[in-house]
């Protein structure tokens, strides 16, 4: 599959959500990613009922349209899927995009008020029974989890894994988010780091700064696991280390 960072969560497809609005922006994001050392990107637009109704086909078509403009980066289908009650049913029907059409799914929780934890745990466990592992996106930016890290522990116990944002590590989302992120890493609650990029300026597809910070603070083995090894395993549908 080649070398480079593996970015499993990136809003890089044009016109599908609050990411780039045209192909020119997408191509500039790809240029930035390649320059940063990213070799693989999961194109993961939002899917949120009533807001972003992106389909597997629309995502596949958008990736196909980029064609040779990917600048040497391999693109894979995915989606940042907002939690909903009938998620398991939609997975069984093949409606929701899994990462690289394998068996991991990016799961976005409500940012401010979570539904009862038992409901979320039931959905995560149900996915696992059906061979799909939920990857909780940016738990360190979730208000409830910033205040109570044990929520992340419960969701992992139910069968989920956690992906934090590179910008949370470097501090672009503020001190509270950065502190929560580092605390989660120390407690072994983080499995992967992704850019969650949306544009070329305020949230670009850059992983190298966070990689350097993690390597310095937790060691090169941890950095490799978060940015390369585990993301590759997620991409290939394999168990994490």
Descriptive tags:
single chain; 241 residues; TIM Barrel; three-stranded parallel sheet; 10 helices; 16% strand; globular
Structure commentary:
The structure is a single chain. 44% of the residues are buried. This protein has a single domain, classed as Metal-dependent hydrolases (TIM Barrel, Alpha-Beta Barrel). A six-stranded parallel sheet has the order 3-5-6-7-8-9. It has a three-stranded parallel sheet with strand order 1-2-4. It has helices spanning 23-36, 56-66, 87-92, 117-129, 143-147, 150-158, 166-170, 175-186, 208-218, 220-236, and strands at 5-10, 38-43, 46-47, 74-77, 80-82, 104-108, 133-137, 161-165, 192-194. Helix content is 43%, strand content 16%. It has 241 residues and is of the alpha/beta class.
Return the domain count.
1
Number of strands: 9
Question: Structural class of the helices, strands and pairings?
Answer: alpha/beta
What does the oligomeric state look like here?
single chain
What helical percentage do the residues reach? 40-55%
Q: In terms of per-residue confidence, which ranges show pLDDT below 50 for 5 or more consecutive residues?
A: none
Order of secondary-structure elements: EHEEHEEHEHEHHEHHEHH
> Roughly what is the average pLDDT, rounded to an integer?
96
The order of strands across the largest sheet is: 3-5-6-7-8-9
CATH homologous superfamily descriptor: Metal-dependent hydrolases
The biggest beta sheet reads: 6 strands, parallel
Shape: globular
Number of helices: 10
Terminal Cα span: 19 Å
CATH class: Alpha Beta
Name the CATH architecture: Alpha-Beta Barrel
The radius of gyration computed from the alpha-carbon positions, rounded to a whole number of angstroms, is 16 Å
CATH topology, anyone? TIM Barrel
- Which band does the percent of strand residues land in? 15-25%
């Amino acid at each position: 599959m080649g070398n480079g960072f593996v970015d499993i969560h990136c809003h890089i497809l044009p016109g599908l959500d609050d990411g780039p609005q045209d192909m020119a922006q997408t191509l500039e994001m790809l240029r930035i990613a390649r320059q940063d050392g990213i070799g693989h990107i999961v194109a993961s637009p939002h899917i949120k009922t009533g807001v972003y109704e992106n389909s597997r086909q629309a995502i596949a078509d958008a990736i196909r349209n980029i064609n040779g403009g990917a600048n040497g980066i391999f693109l894979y289908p995915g989606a940042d899927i907002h939690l909903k009650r009938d998620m398991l049913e939609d997975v069984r029907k093949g409606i929701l995009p899994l990462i690289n059409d394998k068996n991991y799914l990016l799961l976005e929780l409500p940012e401010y008020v979570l539904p009862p934890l038992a409901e979320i745990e039931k959905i995560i466990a149900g996915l696992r029974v059906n061979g799909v592992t939920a990857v909780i996106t940016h738990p360190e930016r979730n208000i409830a989890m910033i205040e109570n890290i044990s929520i992340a522990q419960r969701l992992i116990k139910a069968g989920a894994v956690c992906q934090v944002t590179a910008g949370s590590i470097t501090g672009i989302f503020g001190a509270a988010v950065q502190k929560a992120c580092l605390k989660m890493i120390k407690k072994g609650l983080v499995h992967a780091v992704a850019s969650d990029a949306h544009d070329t300026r305020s949230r670009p597809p850059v992983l190298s700064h966070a990689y350097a910070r993690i390597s310095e603070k937790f060691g090169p083995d941890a950095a490799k696991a978060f940015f390369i090894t585990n993301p590759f395993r997620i991409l290939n549908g394999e168990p994490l280390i």
